[in-house]
Amino acid sequence: MKSPYLAESHREAELEQNEDYAALKCPECGDTMLHHVQAEACWRDYEDGPGTVTHSQNGMVNSARVDEEYIPGRRDCLHLTFYCETCHPPPSDETFTLRIEQHKGETRLYWVKP
Fold it and tell me: pTM for this one?
């Protein structure tokens, strides 16, 4: 089983800063009206090693042990998938996935597209 996020393109994630919080912007239209629809956590046992992937969508949660090739990057990462109510409201199947990953001590955020 291969991750759908291994052969992706990257786009910078942008935030709109408000007085009390920062809101994530849609990578297509720039609006902040995003709704999350699924989450995936990828945890490696050690750098570049195998690990565990937990996926949650529509009230269902699945966890599985995976080989190192399944997890993108060299360390742990999160994938949060959204739809934008401005440019792709339901019933559109168009979604955007935000990756949050650790790399050499940094926490990086960017959009990925399988």
Answer: 0.86
